[in-house]
Amino acid sequence: MVVGQRKPIFKIRSSDGQIFVIQDWLIQKSKSFSVVYPFMKDSAQPLQTTVSSFILEKIIEWCHHHRHDDADQDYRLIPIWDAQFLNDNNGIVFLLIEAAYRLEIRGLLDIACRAVSITLGRSMNEVKVMLRVGEPEDVFNVDDELREDDEEDADMIPAIPAA
């Protein structure tokens, strides 16, 4: 990018018609958006989603906070900010999981599923299958060693108090 040049902005329309103006960091977090990115560059039309404005606003907040994270970052532990974010939004965690799955935002999907897995005492892969955001073979191909590591990591994850 040339010095003094403005970052491109994009418009996204929620399922209830609200339009959000976002920058490229959200496009980079979502595989769904990044696929249509080349077609959005010159379009004045907003990209339509099936996500409500309330949930889309929360997703934008999460993506903005994590905009500098690596694309392949592994969220084995839930960062404190994310634990608070999910605690504040306890009633909508499942809606966030569904939306993150639809928009293919892997980091948010993993963190939210990890929080649910801790609450339920299940592995993250089992939670993904239960919520239909993962494949059944993911559960059956899990190494026992990985399962033991997950249990050890659970002690290091900040508790998410029930609301």
From TrEMBL:
InterPro entries tied to this protein: SKP1, SKP1-like, SKP1-like_dim_sf, SKP1/BTB/POZ_sf, Skp1_comp_POZ
Amino-acid biosynthesis among keywords: no
Alphabetized UniProt keyword annotations: Ubl conjugation pathway
GO BP terms: ubiquitin-dependent protein catabolic process
Record-annotated SKP1 component POZ domain positions: 9-67
PANTHER family (UniProt xref): SKP1 (PTHR11165)
Name under which the protein is recorded: SKP1 component POZ domain-containing protein
